[in-house]
Amino acid sequence: MTREAKQRKHRGSHRWLIAVVTCLIALGVGSLGYASYYHQRFKPTQINGVTVTNLTVAQATKKLNQSTGSQSSKAITVAKSRVKVSQASVAKLLTKRNGEAGHMVDTVSMKLTTQVSASAQQYRLTTLLPAFEKQIDTINAIRKTPIDAKVVLKNGQLSVTQGQSGTALDKATMVADFKQQAKTEAVISVNKVTKQAVKADSKTISQVKANLQKLLTQTVTLNVSGTNITFKASDYLKNGTATADGKYQFDTTLLKQKVAALATKYDTKGKSAKFKTHSGSTITVPAGGTWGWSIAQTKLVKYILYGFEHPSSQTLNLKHFVTGTGYGKTNTVGDTYIEVNLKTLHEYAYVNGKLVFSTPVMSGTITGGNKTPQGLYYIMYKQRNTTLTGQNDNGSTYNSKVKYWMPITNSGVGLHDSSWQPSYVYGNTSYRADYHSHGCINNPPSKMGKLYSVSYAGEPVVVYY
C-alpha cells in the first residue's frame, strides 16, 4: 500500500470515529433533555380519568380541580362530586409515575384519593346521590330488567321457573360503590355494573329450593290456656314463591281460615257467657259488654308464618295474641269481680273468690231509653269527686255531683253514689219505675266508698237480670 493510500484510509477511520462520537453525544444530550423534561412533567398519564400528559404538577392540579364530570361507556363520573386536590398529592403521583421504567408511549391510569370533609360527604350523600340514583333509573328505563329464576310452590308441589337475562344496571351495587367513594375519593366515578339474572340451575336456586322444602316440614305449637295446637307448614302453605334472595311469599288463606276458626271457638268478647251467680245458680249472661277478649288474628297469622320460616321460634302462647280483657279467667271473669243482679237490685263484690261487699242498689229501667244494659263489662277507670252530665227524658240537662265514679261503658253507664235517692228505694224493685237512674247503678252514699276501695280499674262487672 502506498503512503498516499494509507493516509486516505486513516482519514476515513478518523471521520467514522468522529461520526460515532457525535451520535453518542447527541443521544446523551437527547436523553438528558428527555429526562430533564419529564422530571417536571407527567409521562402519558390519566389521573381519575383526567388526562395530564406533559403537564407540570401545577398544571395537572389545576386541570384536576377544574374538570367537570362526564359519562363514559364504562363508568359514570358524577358531576360536581369533585373535591379540590393539593399540589403535594399530585406531586407524589408525578414522582411515582416518572420513576416507573418504560411506559414512554402507553397511557397509565392513576388513582388519587383525598381527605373528604364531613360537609362534602353530606353534600354528596344528600344532594348528589339522589341525582345519581335518578340517572341510573333513566338509563334503566330503556334497558331490559333481568328476571331471576325462582322456586314456585303450587298445590303443594315445588318447581323452578327459568330466569331471563337483561341489560339493566345493578342499582344497588352501584349505589353502594357511590357511598363508599363519597368518603375518600377526589371525584366519584362509579363503574357501570350490569345486573345478572340468577339462573335456574345455579347453586343459589338449588339452596333456595332446599330451604323451602325444609320449611314445609316445620311445625309451630300454639298454647291455648294449657292446650297445645300444632300447625304444620305443609298443611297450610300450598302456594307461594321463594326468590333468589331467600324471601318468601305465601298464600296464607288456609292459615287465616284456621286462625279464624280458633277465634270463633275461643273468643269471649261480644258473646254470651256462662256465669255462676251469688245465689249459686248458673246463668247465661247476654252477649254484649266491654269485658272479654278476642284473638288478634292478623298478628297471630304473621307469627305462625314467622315460626315456619325461623325454626327457633316454634312455640307460641295465645295470651300474647289477644286483645281485650279476661284471657285465661275461670268462670268467665275469674275470682275477683262485681256482680249486679237487676232482678233483685242487689250488688256483690268478690275478691279472690270471697264475698267482701254487698249492698242493695237502684238501676235504670229494664227496657227503654234509660235501661241498664246487661252483659259482661269492666271498670274503665276510677274517679273521685266529679260531676255527671246528661239529658233527662224531658230534654233538660242534669248535672249530678258524685264522690265516687266507676264507668263501665263508653256511653256513660257506671257505678256511683247517689245522694239524691231516698234510702228506701235501694233494693226495692217497686220503686224502679219512679226512681230509676239513666242507666247507671246507683249505690247508697254510705256504701259506695267501701265498694270503691275494694275494686280496681279493669275489674270485671257482671250485670244480669
UniProtKB/TrEMBL annotation:
L,D-TPase catalytic domain boundaries: 336-464
Gene Ontology, cellular component aspect: extracellular region
Pfam families documented for this protein: PG_binding_4, YkuD
Gene3D superfamilies for this protein: 3.10.20.800, L,D-transpeptidase catalytic domain-like
Pathway where it operates: Cell wall biogenesis; peptidoglycan biosynthesis
GO BP annotation list: cell wall organization; peptidoglycan-protein cross-linking; regulation of cell shape
GO molecular function: peptidoglycan L,D-transpeptidase activity; transferase activity
Alphabetically ordered keywords of this record: Cell shape, Cell wall biogenesis/degradation, Peptidoglycan synthesis, Transferase
Active-site residue list: 416 (proton donor/acceptor), 440 (nucleophile)
Transmembrane segments: none
PANTHER family according to UniProt: EXPORTED PROTEIN, L,D-TRANSPEPTIDASE
Protein name: L,D-TPase catalytic domain-containing protein
Organism expressing this protein natively: Secundilactobacillus similis DSM 23365 = JCM 2765
